[in-house]
Amino acid sequence: MSNNSKTTTKILQEAKKTVTSRCEVVVDNLLLQKINTVEVLVLKIEDRKQTSRLVHDLNKIFPLPTLQHIKRINKDEIVLCNADVVNPFDILLKAKFDLTGLSSHPRKIKVPSEKPTTRKQFEDATLLWPCGFHENKYLEKLLAGTLFDQEEQKLQLRWMKAALEAAKKSNVCVGATVVDPSNNQLIAVCGDDRTNNPVKHAIMVLIDLVARTQNGGVWAKSAHDYFCDSQILLDSFHHKKRDVNGFGKPVGPYLCTGYDVYVTREPCQMCAMALIHSRVRRVFYGCSYKNGALGTLIKLHTVRALNHHYEVFKGIYEHECQSLF
After folding, report:
1. Which residues contact 146 (CB under 8 A, 6 or more apart)?
2. Is 176 a member of any domain?
3. Which of 90, 261, 286, 298 would you call most buried, defined as having the most Cβ atoms within 10 angstroms of its Cβ?
4. Spatial CA neighbour of 35 closest among 120, 147, 149
5. Are 310 and 283 in contact (CB under 8 A)?
6. For this UniProt entry, what's an example GO CC term (predicted)?
7. How far apart are CA 264 and CA 289, in angstroms?
8. CA dihedral (287, 292, 298, 302) positive or negative
9. What is the pLDDT of residue 223?
10. What's phi and psi for 278, nearest 5 deg?
11. What integer is the mean pLDDT of 185-212?
12. Is-contact 107 79, C-beta < 8 A?
C-alpha cells in the first residue's frame, strides 16, 4: 500500500472514530434561537455635554422597565422610548423636558427585547444596540462541546458500550446503564423487556434495578440485567447517595439522585419523565427516536415548570446504536 493510501485510510479511520464518539448537548431552544427584538425611537445627541442630564431626565419621563439590559446611550444616540408610545414629544412638553442638545427628529430602530443568555446571542444583540451580558462559562463549554476532557470521554464510551451490549441481548434492542460519577461505579445495566410487559422499557427497568439496590424494586431481575465492576451481587450491594451534582456528602437514598444514565436510544415521554422523578444528573443517548422526548418530539428536560432538570447529551456510538434497528 502506498504512503498516500495509508494516509487516506488513517484519516478515514480517525473520522469514523470522531463520529462514533461525538457527544452533542441537547439544550433549550431558547439558547439556540436568534435574539428577539422590539422597536424603539432614538434621537441624536447634538451636544455631548448634555448627555448626563438627558439620560437622567429621560429615565424619569420614559423609564424602560422591560429593556433594563440595553444601554440608554449608543455613541451619539439616545433611546427616547418604545416605538409604540403615542405622541412622545407631547409627553416631553407636558413634563417640561429641556430639549437642549437633542435632535427633534426621531429614528425608529430595533433593539434586543431580552437579555442575551449565550455569547452568540450577545454578539448578535450588540450588532443592533449595546446591551449588558454576563457570560456563563459552564454553559459556553456545554454549547462549544468542550465540557468533557479525554478521560471523561473514554468513560462515556465505556458506559455506552455496556448499554450496547445489553441492547443486543434485549427483546427490542435497547440497552441502558446507570453510573455514579462521584466514583465511576457502574450501578446497573439492563435491556428492554417491553414485549413481556409494555411498561418495561429499558429506562424503567434500569430505575427499578437502582431501587433494588436501595431495598426497593418491584420486578424480577433478569440474569443479564445487572453487574458492577467489583462483581458484587445485586442482593448484597448497597451504595450511598450523592447530591444532585454527583458529588459531596450523601443526601439520603432516593433512586438516581446525582447519577448519569446511558441509553442506546432516545427515551420516550414516559421514560424521560421517570428520569425526572428519579432525579438523575445527566442522560446520554446514542441515537434519536421518532417518539423521543429529549430532543425529537419535545425537550422534556427543559420544561421550566418541572421541579427537576437534568442535562442531556446525544450521539455517543450513534451509528452503532442506530444499526440495532
Report:
1. none
2. yes
3. 261
4. 120
5. yes
6. cytoplasm
7. 10
8. negative
9. 56
10. -85, -5
11. 91
12. no
189, 230 in Cβ contact below 8 A?
A: no
Rounded distance between C-alpha atoms, residue 123 and residue 110, angstroms? 15
For the chain, the C-alpha Rg in angstroms (whole number) is 28
Give the N- to C-terminal CA distance of the chain in Å, as an integer.
36
Residue 98 half-sphere exposure toward CB, CA atoms < 13 A: 11
Residues 189 and 116 in one domain: no
Q: What percent of the chain has pLDDT over 70?
A: 83
Which structural domain, as residue segments, surrounds residue 64?
Answer: 34-142
Same domain, 175 and 313: yes
Contact criterion met (CB below 8 Å) for 82 and 38: yes
3-state secondary structure of 278: coil
Closest C-alpha to 187, from 248, 253, 142: 253
> Which of 230, 250, 228, 231 has its CA nearest to residue 240?
250
- Hey, what's the cell of 66? 422591560
Percent of the chain, pLDDT > 90?
Answer: 74
Note whether 119 and 223 are same-domain residues.
no
CA dihedral 117, 119, 121, 125 (to 10 degrees): 110
Of 75, 107, 142, the domain-final residue: 142
DSSP code, position 221: P
Q: Hey, what amino acid is at 33?
A: Q
| CA neighbor of 282 nearest in space, from 120, 151, 135, 160 | 160
Q: Which of 80, 92, 11 is nearest to 44 (CA)?
A: 80
CA–centroid distance for 96 within its chain: 50
- SS3 state of residue 39: strand
